[in-house]
Amino acid sequence: MGGLGHIIERTGLATTQISLIREHTEKIQPPRALWVPFDLGRPFGVPNDADFQTDVLRSVLGLLEQSGKPLMADYEREAPSTPDDPGAWSCPVQIPAPAPETELEALTQSLLSEVRLLHPWYDEGLKARGRTAFGVTGKDVGAVEEMATVVTEAASGAEVSPDGYIQEMPLLLKYIADDLKTFYYEAAAAQPGATPTVKDLNDWFFTGTRLGSDVLYQLVEQFGSLGRAVIPIEYARASE
Amino acid sequence: MVRLSSLPQAEAEGLGNMPMPEYEPTSLVEAPPLSEARVALISTAGLHRADDRPFLPGANDFRVIPGDVDFADLHLSHVSVNFDRSGFQQDANTLFPLERLRALAGAGEIGSVADWHYSFMGATSPEKMEETGGQVAKLLREDGVTSVLLVPV
């Protein structure tokens, strides 16, 4: 990001930027940067808080009033966290504990049951927001059960060659996993109750769902190269 | 929160060891007062409209995003487990604050919002963006932009 700042400022346009990783910005020294203490992926701090986002925006635009030497400022406020108690959120949809099944058909049915439990909340979230981030594979949410089946078959070692997707196998599996994860996260965030934090959602997905705690790990066993692309390092298991 | 020391060790090492290009200090351009500035956004989140080509890993090309884009049409094809996507899922302003920018223009705090904004793929080496970054700078100038906000993910 900082490199683009140099490239564009040198053409005569004033630039300012958000910095998420302070150490990187200190090395690149872009023209103007506001370091923010937020999670990666959230450069304006928190969703659905216009006042807070606008405060960050004013701060980073305010750097444009400076000229002379490159400058880097710190944004001092932490992102508002809801709930105050980070352990307060839990997914209201109770997903059945995984049964010790190993047959492909049973595994597929188990995952499809999970998807169907979450689907009404995914739909509610879509209605509330009017948008979805699902679709990086080029398919819409009507294909979510097909995707669950594909990823389960692949995780079980079966050869799969699904049609109609933008990406090619095996990289396609990374994108299918991501669309499924989007489906789960949007469904979980739409449910009533406290607003989940990033950690809430990740903990729930990678320890409390069949897809996140089981199928994706099996997928990584089958396709080792997908490991870091599918499972965050903090959820990696010792055997990987 | 995002100092390398706050991340899991392996991720911190990966990010810390990531090669960074060195730049000679760039002299700062004097921008007009914010109340007269025409502001454009540039994201490296791999954002694009639903019917645009998705980004490929390492791509150095860009997509254009119209200033009146409907957020329902915005997709993100920078797929990585290394950053949170749930914020974007809930509210695209979390990483592409176009609605907030429109509000500042409406209130007269900035002069105007550009007709066109731009998105690149994240995690692409900056050296590969010299040419396409220069092209975007020309396009911004044609749009009358005076001030550019760069937003990583």
Q: Which percent bin holds the helix content of chain A?
A: 40-55%
Mean pLDDT of chain A: 89
Largest sheet of chain A: 3 strands, parallel
User: Segments of chain B where pLDDT lies below 50 for 5+ residues?
Assistant: none
Give me the Rg of chain B, rounded: 16 Å
Q: What percentage of residues of chain B falls in helices of 4 or more residues?
A: 10-25%
How many helical stretches of chain B? Answer: 4
Query: How many β-strand stretches of chain A?
Result: 3
Strand order of the largest sheet of chain A: 1-2-3
Overall structural class of chain B, as computed from helix and strand content, comes to alpha/beta
Distance between the termini of chain B: 14 Å
| Strand proportion of chain B | 15-25%
> What's the main sheet of chain B like?
5 strands, mixed
Instruction: Report the β-strand fraction of chain A as a percent range.
Output: 5-15%
Task: Supply the helix-strand structural class of chain A.
Answer: mainly alpha
Biggest contact: A-B, 88 and 83 residues
What's the overall geometry of chain B? Answer: globular
Rg of chain A (CA only): 21 Å
How many domain regions of chain B? 1
Q: Low-confidence runs of chain A (pLDDT<50, min 5 residues)?
A: none
Give the number of DSSP strands of chain B.
7
